[in-house]
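queue> pop job 88
queue> type: inverse folding (structure -> sequence)
queue> payload:
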């Protein structure tokens, strides 16, 4: 499916960063800010749900077979295998939002981000990083959502993901959370994702 993305009035923003850097925490707070108006795209994944994760809200949880069938029908804007699981952005809701002039945020990995920027060169890209790999390790372990082998795999991948940081137009170092959230809010507003409480 090819689309003329430049014709769509909405804005597309891509956010990436290694597992445990804090991108979900920052985005949850930034998207709640009244000066921001944006919708977080819900990805499909073959990863099993973590405790507390809800299908349709955090992800659409599907089997590997269901994911591959949807991918082969062209239903994803981008997709990638990350830490051994498949993840993809359903294309139809993104187009609907962009046609309606809305702002859509994709929280996706570096491989997916490269696919999106090839298809939609006008997309804004934000990389969330951490002050050091030790901090990343502490956050990932502190979150307590993954078994040891999965934590190790995610830390190994983090080194490779950090090599792509220069491909992004903006970077946020998530040291102090409040500051990182303020920076995300400013970048989203700057990208055109303005809420009603923001002057035009
Ligand atoms: N390419 C791609 N990556 C995704 C998508 N959804 C999530 N991801 C990425 O997959 C990675 C793992 O996500 P997840 O298992 O939720 O772990 P987390 O990053 O520790 O919260 C992260 O880098 C996400 O940004 C998607 O639709 N496409
Ligand atoms: N600035 C910060 N300082 C300390 N802990 C943080 C900070 N930002 C996030 N965290 C914590 O780090 C862990 C990983 O954050 P999360 O948002 O799940 O990361 P990601 O979505 O990038 O995998 C969570 O337990 C979160 O509460």
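queue> result:
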């Amino acid at each position: 499916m090819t689309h003329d993305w430049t014709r769509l009035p909405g804005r597309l923003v891509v956010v990436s960063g290694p597992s445990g850097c804090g991108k979900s925490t920052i985005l949850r707070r930034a998207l709640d800010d009244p000066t921001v108006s944006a919708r977080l795209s819900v990805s499909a994944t073959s990863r099993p749900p973590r405790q507390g994760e809800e299908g349709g809200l955090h992800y659409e949880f599907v089997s590997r077979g269901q994911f591959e069938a949807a991918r082969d029908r062209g239903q994803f804007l981008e997709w990638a295998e990350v830490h051994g699981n498949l993840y993809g952005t359903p294309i139809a809701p993104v187009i609907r939002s962009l046609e309606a002039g809305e702002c859509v945020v994709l929280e996706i990995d570096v491989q997916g981000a490269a696919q999106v920027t090839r298809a939609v060169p006008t997309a804004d890209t934000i990389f969330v990083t951490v002050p050091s790999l030790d901090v990343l390790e502490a956050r990932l372990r502190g979150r307590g959502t993954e078994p040891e082998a999965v934590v190790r795999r995610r830390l190994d991948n983090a080194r490779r993901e950090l090599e792509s940081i220069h491909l992004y137009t903006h970077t946020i170092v998530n040291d102090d959370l409040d500051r990182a959230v303020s920076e995300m809010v400013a970048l989203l507003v700057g990208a055109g994702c303005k809420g009603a409480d923001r002057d035009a």
